[in-house]
User: Fold this.
Amino acid sequence: MKQFLEGSRAVAETVKLCRPGVISAYPITPQTHIVEELAQIVSDGELNAQFVNVESEHSAASVVLGSTATGVRSFTATSSQGLLLMLEVLFNIAGLRLPLVLTCANRAVSAPINIWNDHQDAVTVRDSGWIQLWAEDMQDCIDLHIQAYRLAEDKRVYLPVMVNMDGYILTHGLEVADMPTQGEVDKFLPAFKPLFKLDVDNPMTLGFLAGPDYYLETRYAIQKTMEDVLKIIPEVSAEFKKVFGRNRGGLIETYKTEDAEAILVAKGSLIGTIKDTVDEMRSEGKKVGVVKVITYRPFPGQAIRDALAGIANVGVVEKSISLGSTGPLYADIKAALTKPDPKQKISGIVIGLGGRDITKAAIREIFNGLSKEAPCRFIGLKEELLHEEFTDE
Assistant:
């Protein structure tokens, strides 16, 4: 059914359709609306679940770790510093192979304090063992959450999934989206039947002390599963299309790349702006396109290689920076191109940090500058601010 909804409300309604038994979160802008809506849904009796109020994001992550470990489908959400406060527990959740779903309303991290959107939060925790999916628009937010539970609980996977949606742009934006029915979701997402759980009638150990004789193998097992996930995600998205009639999810999406001479690679809501710019430039006879990264972890290296093969000019546009190096997505793509084409120029572009506006003019500037290859170029800098002295006065 088509509905005009705020993004946070759409996510809350989608999570309700997935029937979690435990929800725990701590409010942090711009994630708060999601769990406010879920708290109301539980209070109104629309969802048979426990909503657990806690004093911090670390505690929220600990609660859903425990509930998932006891065999209950669970959910949490956070943003920015809240995600970083969860980090200790995020590693534990993945290391325990618990199939949890978390929504990250992407936001810049401090200092300085900034509550607006970029991707630094989720990118910073990319090595924690969580699968990461990234939404372009509200429909992606809805559909990726449903697929996230199906993927996490697949017995070949059993890893947590983080669904990323841009703070304010998607969490507070209003769009028309197709909300699925309970029957459709139930058909696609069966009741959670855990492979293992903490049970007093069947005692077992989770999170044992692993010395040097065992620890390496635990990391290897997650790595091998991540490699398998690259094959499983397309299966899940194909099954989703059969049930819901929409082609959403997968590893990457290409847009007008068939005959492109220049391509931008990006993720999140930025893709919409790039697509609009590509349409305008195409109408002017310029052969440009865009590759949308949906799955960031595990990294879809082969899909990226195939999409960029033979493209003379490539720009990797991202709203994050690995300080002292380059943009993380740029580094991943460069590493994935195991046999670099000497004729191919790949530039890394950092843009929109702290929520700075990203305009179609800026995207045009990026396309027009791709012939001048650079590993880490910042777009949209205000030169006058670079010379200001910041003091405590």
Remarks:
- The chain has 14 helices and 15 strands.
